[in-house]
Amino acid sequence: IKTMEDSLNIIELSSELLSPDTNYKNSFIINLKSKLQSCQSFLNANIEGITTLDLSFGSIGAKELESFSESLSKNKTIKVIDFSWNSIQDEGCIILYRILKTNTTIERLELKGNGIKNQGTHCLCEVLLNHPSIKSLNLSGNAIGDEGFRSLGQVLSSPQSNLILLDLSMNNSGVKGIQNLALGLAQNKKLESLNLKGAPEDSAQFLSDAIKINKSITYLEIWSAGISSTLLDQINDYV
Hints:
Layout: E1 18-20, E2 28-30, H1 36-45, E3 52-54, H2 62-67, H3 69-74, E4 80-82, H4 89-102, E5 108-110, H5 118-128, E6 136-138, H6 146-157, E7 165-167, H7 175-187, E8 193-196, H8 204-213, E9 219-222, H9 229-238
Parallel strand pairs: 3-4, 4-5, 5-6, 6-7, 7-8, 8-9
Antiparallel strand pairs: 1-2
């Protein structure tokens, strides 16, 4: 590995830019910070064996995402992208929509804590309805309300959706949003893990009814405070 100042290509990899990722075998974390030009070069290189791109805590908003969106759209090696704790927001989700329409190798997308609301969620759901490769989506800690949860419920009800893991914890959905999500969950046959920590207590019955029908869920996390022990026992029996 040779050190470089500002550029990155398939032959010369800066040791300051690459570090081992202990969570994913044969993968690396890209510590890019402000090195967006290096990110673009890295994505264009399609380096075999490096499958994880970690851009968490990178102060990335729509403008920064746009700067390497074309390269990410065309990349064929990255399977895991972590955008956690950035500023993607609804505007950035429009760009992610374009990226995911072209990129069909990404399997895991981390978007925790990005200020995403209903409009951005709807954009993501439009492409997730039949995306061939995305199996894991983390939208924890955003500001998704009832309309966003309705869109996510439509994704879950789509036979073409390939989601296996979905984290929607600590968002802004009310009972109506969870009810619409539960309608999709009842029809879903692939999702195995669902995190709804922070969901309204009054929504637990809708989830219980959906789990009675759903045969794929093996893990469901909900906020237990205020939920009757009888209802929790029912849910545990179904999961």
